[in-house]
Amino acid sequence: MEIPWLESGQEIIEELITLRRQLHQHPELGYEENRTAETIAKILRDLGLEVQTGVAKTGVVALLKGKEPGKTIALRGDMDALPLQEISDKPYRSKTSGKMHACGHDAHMTYVIGAAMLLKKYQSRLKGNVKFIFQPAEETTGGAKPMIEEGVLENPRVDAVLGGHVWPDTPTGSIEVLKGPVMASTGQLYLEIYGKGGHAARPHENIDPILIGQEILQRLQSLSSRMIDPLENSVISICSFQAGETYNVMPEKAVLMGTIRTLNNELRLEIPGKIEKIVENVTSYYGATYSLNITHLYPATINDENFTTFASASAKKLLGKEQVIQGNKPSMAGEDFAFYLEKVPGTFLRIGNYNQDKGLVYNLHNPHFDIDEAQLGKISALYAKIAMDFLTE
Ligand code: NI
Question: What's the predicted TM-score (pTM) here?
Answer without folding.
Answer: 0.94
